[in-house]
Amino acid sequence: MRLGLFGGGRLGVVVGDLVHDASALVPIEAAGVGGALAALIRSGAALDADDVAAAPAFPLEGIEWEAPLPRPGKIIGAPANYFEHVDEMPDSSTVVEWGVFLKAGTSVLAPGGTIRLPYLDKRTDHEGELAVVIGRGGRDISLESARAHVFGYTCALDITVRSTEDRSTRKSFDTFTPLGPLVVTADELGSDGDLGLRLTVNGGLRQESTTAKLIYGVPELIAYASSVMTLEPGDVIATGTPAGVGPIVDGDVVEVSIDRVGSLRVEVTADGAIRYADRPGPRTALQRG
Ligand code: MN
After folding, report:
1. Residue among 126, 185, 191, 135 at smallest CA distance from 159
2. Which of 53, 103, 263, 278 is deepest in the core (most CB within 10 A)?
3. Distance (Å, rounded) from C-alpha 172 to C-alpha 208?
4. pLDDT tens readout for residues 207-221
5. Where are the chain's structural domains?
6. d(CA 167, ligand 1 centre) in Å
7. Is the pTM value of this prediction over 0.85?
8. Which fold has domain 75-276?
9. Ramachandran bin of 170, using left for φ above 0, alpha for ψ from -120 to 50, beta for the remaining angles
10. How many A from CA of 45 to the centre of ligand 1?
11. DSSP H helical segments within 12-135, as ranges?
12. How far is the CA of 239 from the centre of ligand 1 (A)?
């Protein structure tokens, strides 16, 4: 199935040219800030195709999709997980040495939304990535059973300020994790082993690769991440970005497209950006003792 949120948090299932409103089929009252899709994933239940077909339907064209998971419990990132990207970075370490990092759940941005650049004078980059949505949670998940813990896949951007702070700071600004538009379930997608990924800025190609080139593929990421932290239903793993990362600036339109998963398009603004030196916090005349 292909699932998303629309119309103020309603759960939509795409069938052909129609979107069926399956909100009545999930415990939506318990959805909270995590949203109806997260509630469905937590329930562990699969939607019945006949029930979906009987639900009210709207034309797919014209639907404005919201983020499918507006507030994931965890957004786990994989740094330097394509060798081509490692080669363009100042450090030759890979995910094997870095491990994984966390982004704030509040950094999610809906499709069609606007990335807000925080600083006028610090480079901020696009990173187009395949995102994995965890279905069944777990700890110390084995490589062999990892795929059984995948609910589905969606498109993500891992927006990053190129400054000196920890990754969790540089990647966690509000709007820095565009997500969606749809989550394609694992059974619908089939193999995630060779999905083409392209990213354009204002229509110009910046990144083009395939998940076949991931250093840690999806099973390795799940096994590794779950050796550190318990994975929960609805957690998101951004699998890393290939070569071609580059700066985004005010007025840009960024689009990442992944084979059989979808296309995610967002805009960029510098409205409200400040000089890096003007960020809060004392930085001068700090004397120890
Ligand atoms: Mn990344």
Report:
1. 126
2. 103
3. 25
4. 999 999 999 999 999
5. 2-66, 75-276
6. 10
7. yes
8. Fumarylacetoacetate hydrolase; domain 2 (3.90.850)
9. alpha
10. 31
11. 35-43, 49-54, 83-86, 95-98
12. 7
Candidates 156, 135, 107, 118; CA nearest to 268 is 118
Tokens of 243: 């070569």
Distance from Cα 39 to the centre of ligand 1, integer Å: 26
What would the pLDDT profile of 238-284 be if each residue is shown by its tens digit? 999 999 999 999 999 999 999 999 999 999 999 999 999 999 987 76
Mean pLDDT for 234-240 is 98
Residue 115 alpha carbon to ligand 1 centre in Å: 16
Distance 127 CA to ligand 1 centre (A): 6
Q: Which two tokens stand for residue 47?
A: 């939607």
The per-residue pLDDT of the chain, averaged, comes to 95
Ligand 1 centre to CA of 88 (Å) is: 13
For residue 190, the CA-to-ligand 1 centroid distance in Å is 24
29-85 per-position pLDDT tens digit: 667 889 999 999 999 999 999 999 999 999 999 999 999 999 999 999 999 999 888
